[in-house]
Amino acid sequence: MALSMLFGRLRARKAQLALAIRGTVAATAAFAIASALHLMLPLWAVLTSLIVTQGSVGRSLKATRDYMFGTIGGALYGGAIGVFIPHSGELQLLALLVLAVAPLAFIAALNPSLNAATVTAVIVLLVPTMGHLDPVGSAVDRVFEVAVGAFTGLAVSFLVLPSRAHVQIRSAAGRLMELIAAALTELLAGLSRGRDNDALHRIQDGIGAALVELNATGAEAERERSARLSSGADTGPLLRTILRLRHDVVMIGRASVVPLPSELQARLAGPVAKVSEAIASYLRGCAAALRAGTHPPAIWPVHVAVNTYAEQVALLRSEGLTRGLPADAAERFFALGFSLDQMRQNLVDLERVVAEWSDTPPRAKKEPARTEESTDTAGA
To answer: CA angle at residue 262 from 258 to 268, to 5 degrees?
Structure first.
């Protein structure tokens, strides 16, 4: 029982386990190669291999590029200072260290991808004082040590349990769609009881953090596509569609801060509940389809639910029940209808995008004729 639980936990953390294995293999291989080449400090090859071995191939590509550029730039600058500015004694070396660190630290503050330049320049300057080497030799050694570590780590990322960002984005996007579904359900429930700003911010912050993670994974996936290391659908339409859905949730959240008047609640409780259930179920279905590489679920329940809500709103207006609403309540009420219709349109885009990510042939759509009804009355 205990062994099966352990294996279950390891399977649940297979991405982290794969990264640990890649890091171990990269560090071991880098040390072996550096020792075989008789590099002066194999330590830097090992450390570099660990730095560039990341959670996905796309991230490893970026880490390798940034670290190599920073190392070469820092080695050239530190070596030039050591060669062209004569120095002897600790005070002169201290002044030289300030001259090396200050401009490179400023550049790294402007462009964090060049952080390695500052460290490399310091090593190139100080290692000769400990090993009695010349600055040029120190710079060359440093570049070779980092190159061995960087390319070893990159090769391991390609060959040992490789993890593609293009695959990871399926999971990240699915998780974000599930968060949007949960938030929508909670926000629409607030139309009957209202919601305080703290709770609203908590919901939105969770989605915002997941969106930042998704955008980072999308950038890595596009880096892989540019290097032709992975194939598949373009990540841009998926990211843009999910961002629009997040904006819809923000608008619905603003409309649900204050509950609807009691006379409107009684008439709209049923249609709102159906809209909430239909959209949330569709988002979760799309999340599951994206992860599995299958086609999205049928979208017609969303059309039916939003149309039903729009028809009820039109009936309330025809009966004059919205005329006596205060200005702020009326604004929120009509903004809700507009936001729901806008979300429905974005879900249509999501259907197309998820279908593009599907690994199976397209299927014929079967939707009731009601989905073709006009929705001009939604929230109008």
So the answer is: 90
pTM of this prediction exceeds 0.85? no
- The residue type found at 205 is D
Q: Which two structure tokens, joined as six digits, stand for 367?
A: 């939707």
Eight-class DSSP state of 114: G
Looking at residue 194, what is its pLDDT?
62
Length in residues, the chain? 380
Residue 299 DSSP symbol: -
Tokens of 14: 């297979």
| Residue 143, token pair as written in the block | 């570049």
In whole angstroms, give the CA distance from residue 46 to residue 19: 16
For residue 277, CA distances in Å to 147, 243, 260, 302, 348 come to 55, 21, 19, 9, 17
Gap between the Cα atoms of 331 and 255, Å rounded: 8
Say which residue the tokens 């600058």 belong to.
77
Residue type for position 317? R
CB 221 within 8 A of CB 152: no
The whole-angstrom separation of Cα 368 and Cα 355 is 20
Residue 28 near residue 78, CB atoms below 8 Å: no
Query: Along the chain (380 residues), what's the average pLDDT of each consecutive run of 10 residues?
Result: 68 80 94 92 91 86 90 91 80 88 93 90 80 76 91 90 81 92 87 67 81 86 75 85 92 79 79 93 95 93 93 84 74 85 94 89 52 41
Q: What is the dihedral of CA 86, 89, 90, 92, to 10 degrees?
A: -30
Amino acid at 350: L
On whether the CB atoms of residues 256 and 188 are closer than 8 A, the answer is: yes
Using alpha carbons, select from 118, 133, 45, 46 the residue that is nearest to residue 83.
Answer: 133
